[in-house]
Amino acid sequence: MALDAAARTNTWAGARGGQSGRMGDSMQARDHADKGARASAVVFGDAARPLRFALTGGAAGTVQLVLLALLTRHGWPELVANGVAFLFAAQLNFALSVTFTWRDRLAAHGLWRRWLAFHGAIAGMAVVNMLVFAAARTAVPVLAASALGIGVAAIGNFVVGDRLVFRRHTTAWRAVRPPSGREDGSEEESVA
Question: How big is the CA angle at 176 (ends 172 and 182), to the nearest 5 degrees?
């Protein structure tokens, strides 16, 4: 009798034309989509922002060090070469900050204003970077002095970026409710 029930189940599943296979494929696709959404939430969530900042800063810092090495190898004075390398790295840093590190924070103002705010904010950290570089280059090699300046300024850059330049603008994008109080804007019917 148990064999008859198993046979009927298999016959019924076969008669359905393999729908269970299609449902399984659909469930697998949904499972993969859910995993992708969870991974995206982890990578682009608030908790991962310091990691994204580190990756962005690492890319910008690498560009600065490579440019510094190239410019000093071609005879540029060390301070001038570091300043030029820093300016180029700052542009990369801004682009990555907008599109990667703080991509979830909508700007209340245009990109141009955010660019100005970003550069105004990092100007103070540029001074810190250059002072550390100038002091450290007397004791360590040029690239190490530049890396030290980048590292010291990184903490200040994160705080300034997170709290000022890329702060959340909650009031700028709030949904406005129509005067009737209903979301669709229609008037409520009065029941007498």
Answer: 160
In this structure, the answer to whether residues 16 and 63 fall within a common structural domain is no
Q: Where are the beta strands (DSSP E) in the chain?
A: none
Structure-derived torsion over alpha carbons of residues 107, 111, 113, 116, reported in degrees to the nearest 10:
120
For residues 14-18, average pLDDT: 50
Residue 177: the pLDDT is 46
Domain with 62, as residue range(s), is 48-165
Contact 129, 150 (CB under 8 A): yes
Half-sphere exposure of 155 (CA within 13 A, CB side): 5
Asked if residue 89 and residue 8 are part of one domain, the reply reads no
For 6, counting Cβ atoms within 10 Å of its Cβ (0-12 exposed, 13-18 middle, 19+ buried), the class is exposed
The answer to whether residue 146 sits within a structural domain is yes
Q: Of all helices (H) and strands (E), which one includes residue 54?
A: helix 49-73
Among 126, 127, 108, 82, CA closest to 165: 108
pTM summary value: 0.57
